[in-house]
Design goal:
Layout lengths: L6 H35 L4 H39 L1
Length: 85
Amino acid sequence: MAEAPTTLQRIKGALDTLLVIDVFLVIAGAIWFAVAVALQSQQVEAPLQLFQRLWEPLFTPDIGLLMAAALLSGAVGWWQRRGLR
């Protein structure tokens, strides 16, 4: 019979899920930026302007969340390994 996951395991699982979603959002933002810069060279300015308007309210917190979640996930993993000894 399988054991019920501990609170730390549930937290780590939730953080891992958050990281996966967040990584895809950051990758999508990077692709959007690259396409917008390429379009800017063709005098299509709207995508880059929209990206710039969304940088502070959307992409900056998203990147910060990715960094914080990665650090927290690493700390929780370290704590779990430390507890197994």
